[in-house]
Design a protein that fits this description.
alpha/beta; Rossmann fold; 2 domains
């Protein structure tokens, strides 16, 4: 007689049958559960050892993979494309336009949501169907590390989370020591939109990266993602321009040449206009530390020269 291994035994207490839009869905109900509080301050019950997890944002997908828990993922949002294996996961719509029926059809015992971005109506509906939805709120490096710890605790990966967080803190400290050695604070314009020109204000995680990398954010202000005319940017006289986009390299070359028409612009004079992968800089995930390390090299290349 064949015996199932312990890892094959899913501790179902019962099976829940649901009919939505004329379709029948089967959801597992787990025997073992724990009480937790999410970043919305909600007290809830979640499975102690969730086996079927749906990620409701690309950065959450990255976090689950970073924790070594991708085997739990049964679904993710459309633009969950890192690491490459995430692209093969069943998709449940974009994080702002979630497909409720698709999510339910995957029979998750836990959904991981983001506080700002996921539509509250879909989250409420999932919870009314008995599906636990735990919300996180990664907004900067510190809260990304907190999110790692929280999700690690939910997915039985506390040790992996602790290792990742310690590694991130060490790398951040290395950058801080590098920046502390110089008083230079070049003016940086971070461009995330091509047409119109969009940058990043004070209350963004990219603003934090700019400051930690030892630069001044020329777009700092109360508006999170302000728009600028080309004349306004020229008036700022940026020493550095960093452009992030999902556009093809050929498109970037055109954007770069548009800026290079202005020969007196400091960023042009010193050939300091850079194009970087948007997913690296635009997602509050563990890769924000990678982005920080890249940025400090762009801002202070002199600190990485031999003998410095």
């Amino acid at each position: 007689m064949n015996r199932k291994s312990k890892t094959d035994r899913i501790p179902f207490l019962s099976i829940l049958f649901l009919i939505i839009g004329g379709a029948l869905f089967v959801l597992p109900v787990f025997a073992q559960s724990i009480h937790v509080t999410d970043l919305l301050g909600r007290n809830m019950v979640v499975p102690k050892d969730p086996r079927r997890v749906v990620s409701l944002a690309p950065n959450i997908t990255e976090i689950v993979f970073a924790l070594g828990q991708s085997h739990r993922l049964v679904g993710a949002t459309t633009y969950s494309d890192y690491p490459a294996a995430a692209e093969t996961l069943p998709k449940v719509g974009s994080y702002v336009h979630l497909d409720l029926e698709r999510i339910v059809s995957l029979a998750p015992d836990l959904c991981l949501a983001i506080k700002d971005g996921n539509p509250i109506a879909v989250i409420s509906r999932l919870e009314s169907l008995g599906i636990a939805v735990y919300a996180v709120d990664p907004r900067d490096l510190e809260s990304v590390m907190d999110t790692l710890s929280r999700i690690g605790g939910l997915l039985q990966a506390d040790k992996e989370a602790d290792t990742l967080v310690q590694g991130m803190r060490h790398r951040i400290q290395v950058v801080e020591k590098i920046v502390a050695k110089t008083v230079k604070r070049p003016g940086l314009f971070f461009q995330i939109g091509v047409s119109p020109i969009v940058s990043v204000g004070t209350n963004t995680f990219i603003h934090e990266l700019i400051l930690r990398a030892g630069a001044r954010n020329l777009a700092a202000g109360n508006i999170p993602y302000p728009r600028f005319s080309k004349e306004q940017v020229l008036g700022m006289s940026p020493d550095i321009i960093i452009i992030t986009s999902m556009a093809r390299k050929a498109v970037f070359e055109k954007i770069k040449q548009d800026w290079y028409q202005w020969a007196n612009l400091p960023a042009v004079k010193n050939n300091r206009i850079y194009f970087k992968d948007s997913s690296l800089f635009d997602r509050p995930s563990p890769r924000l530390v990678d982005a920080l390390e890249i940025m400090v090299r762009l801002v202070h290349p002199e600190m990485f020269e031999e003998g410095s």
